[in-house]
Amino acid sequence: MAVIMDAEPTHREAIAALAGLELSALKETTNTPGLLRLAGHAGVLVLAALVIFLTHSWIVWCLAVLIYGIAIVFLFSLEHETIHGTAFRSGWLNTAIAQAAGFPLLLPPRWFRYFHFAHHRHTQDPTRDPELASPKPKDLIGYAVHISGIPYWRDAILRLSWHTLGRAEEDFIPASGRAKVIAEARAHVAVIAVVATASATFGWTWPLKLWILPALIGQPFLRAYLLAEHAACPLVADMLANSRTTYTTAIVRFLAWNMPYHSAHHAVPTVPFHKLPELNAKLSSRLKSTAEGYVDAHRQIRAAFVSRQ
Question: Dihedral of the CA atoms 70, 296, 281, 264 (nearest 10)?
Answer without folding.
Answer: 70
